[in-house]
Amino acid sequence: MIKLQIIGHLGGDCTTNEVSGRTVINFNVAHSEKYKDAQGNMVDKTTWVRCAYWTDRNSIAQYLKKGQLVYAEGSPEAEAYMNKENQAAATLKMNVFRIQLLGAKNENQAGSTQQNSSYQSSNNSSNVSQPAASQVEEPADDLPF
Question: What percentage of the chain reaches a pLDDT higher than 90?
């Protein structure tokens, strides 16, 4: 099993569609990092992940708004395509099986009752658990590469 985990902000409001009696919630997550390159210059790098969350209930969709900080995990997929300049390009996609809201999209947002709520599909099935107030643990960074 290959699993992708991402913490980032939504690049726009989610969209929902009905497909064969199930709801798919589509959203884009941006993960940004800053680092110094070999020449000592600061580099800002943003990685975008296109996400699809299949469910029978779409109650989380109302909270997936632009700027919202989320944790999502699922199975990754790369998709190759030809861009506008007719050059080969690729995009990173994820079939989400767990999503967790990590607070309001900004400190001044009032009325967000779903802070730190988790939604999960069991074995990629249509069941979604009730929101639970739990914190995301950072994954151990003990990979050899």
Answer: 54
Contacts of 130 (CB under 8 A, 6+ apart): none
Backbone angles phi, psi at 126, to 5 degrees: -85, 0
10: β partners:
29
The pLDDT confidence band at residue 103, using thresholds 50, 70 and 90, is confident
Q: What is the pLDDT of residue 29?
A: 95
Length of the chain: 145
Of 26, 119, 25, 124, the residue nearest 71 (C-alpha): 119
**pLDDT of 42 over the 50 cut:** yes
Q: Could you list the residue range(s) of the whole structural domain that residue 44 is in?
A: 4-124
The string over 52-77, giving b where at least 16 C-beta atoms fall within 10 Å of a residue's C-beta and e elsewhere, is bbbbeebebbebbeeebbbbbbbeee
The residue type of 59 is S
- Whether 24 is covered by a domain: the verdict is yes
Beta-carbon neighbour count of residue 98 at 10 Å?
19
What DSSP designation does 102 have? -
- Angle at 21 (CA atoms; ends 5, 116), nearest 5 degrees: 35
Question: How many domains, the chain?
Answer: 1
pTM over 0.85: no
